[in-house]
């Protein structure tokens, strides 16, 4: 009996966490929107993930909703993991931008009392092979 109460207690706690997370996504909390924008996902994916998490949270509050919850949350987690791995892989494989700049300054000459120009030019990326 104690084991059953403990399992239902954990199930209700996880349900409340899923409800809170889904509500944060659907209400457009800044942290959630920022994370989805960092991955390049729009509000449609935010809405889909929030809806799935709210449905999962509601099913977790029911004693026999475990299978449906497992399917819903597995879909959300696999999608989130896939997008994160894809985003990191694309960021790693992308070439870093080559700075293209020209800096010009003046340095006083040691023996002469005139200013000598110093020109530092970075080569263009189109020339690099």
Task: Throw out a few tags for this protein.
129 residues; 64% helix; 2 strands; two-stranded antiparallel sheet; 4 helices; mainly alpha; single chain
| Major sheet description | 2 strands, antiparallel
Give the amount of beta strand, in percent: 5-15%
* Nearest-integer average pLDDT: 76
What is the CA-based Rg, rounded?
28 Å
Oligomer: single chain
SSE pattern, N- to C-terminal:
HHHHEE
Across the major sheet, the strand order is 1-2
| Shape category | elongated
Contiguous low-pLDDT stretches (5 residues minimum) are: none
CA-to-CA gap between the ends?
A: 72 Å
Structure description:
The model has no long low-confidence stretch (mean pLDDT 76). A hairpin with a 6-residue loop joins strand 1 and strand 2. By secondary structure, the protein is mainly alpha-helical. The chain has one domain (2-93). It has a two-stranded antiparallel sheet with strand order 1-2. The longest helix has 28 residues, at 66-93. Helix 1 packs antiparallel against helix 3. It has helices at residues 2-27, 30-38, 43-61, 66-93; strands at residues 102-108, 115-121. It contains four helices and two strands, in the order H-H-H-H-E-E.
Per-chain topology:
Blueprint: H1 2-27, H2 30-38, H3 43-61, H4 66-93, E1 102-108, E2 115-121
Antiparallel strand pairs: 1-2
Helix pairs in contact: 1-3, 3-4
């Amino acid at each position: 009996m104690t084991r059953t109460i403990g399992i239902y207690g954990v199930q209700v706690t996880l349900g409340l966490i899923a409800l809170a997370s889904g509500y944060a996504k659907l209400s457009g909390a800044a942290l959630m929107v920022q994370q989805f924008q960092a991955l390049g996902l729009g509000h449609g994916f935010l809405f889909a993930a929030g809806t799935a998490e709210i449905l999962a949270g509601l099913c977790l509050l029911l004693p026999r909703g475990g299978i449906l919850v497992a399917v819903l949350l597995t879909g959300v987690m696999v999608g989130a993991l896939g997008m994160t791995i894809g985003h990191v892989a694309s960021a790693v494989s992308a070439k870093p931008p080559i700075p293209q700049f020209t800096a010009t300054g003046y340095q006083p000459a040691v023996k002469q009392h005139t200013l000598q120009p110093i020109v530092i030019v970075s080569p263009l990326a189109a020339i690099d092979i």
